[in-house]
Amino acid sequence: MTTPRQVDLQRIAQQQQQLQFAAFDKASAWALGTRLKQACEATDVATTIEVRLAKETVFLYAMPGTAPNNADWARRKRNVVEVMEQSSYAVGLAAEEEGVPLEVAMGLDTRDYAPHGGSFPLIVKGVGCVGAVTISGLPQREDHALVVEVLALMCGVNPAEVALP
Predict the structure, then answer these.
(1) How far is CA 61 from the centre of its chain?
(2) Domain of 106, in residue numbers
(3) Which end of the chain, N or C, is less packed with Cβ atoms under 10 Å?
(4) Of all helices (H) and strands (E), which one includes residue 39?
């Protein structure tokens, strides 16, 4: 029997295949950060938003209602994506599925790495992972879902086709 965790892992693999850009530069990173900010404002949620390209922070915004803790969570989740080149949510779900914490499996200190939802690799077709987009402020599955929704719109994919079930 397939578990909800396995269903999410399958869908996240699909997301990473479909949510790829033809090109991605600093202007794209800024547009992504701005769209995430607008999506958060439209749904009246407060998050810290970070978009990085080639390990350089291009967009960083802590919305009113966030705390310094949100920026630290964003940093830790983003570190997972930069090392694993996978969604931080997928990495955390896979670790749970295997029953082996990330710090044990990879030797990654939890002070600097958080395998929790909210960070997603920025993938360019034919190139691979060029950066990461991260939000923090909602429950981890909701952080992940919001990032995916905005990425889908930017990639010309119907958000409903890639949304978590």
Answers:
(1) 15
(2) 4-162
(3) N
(4) helix 26-42
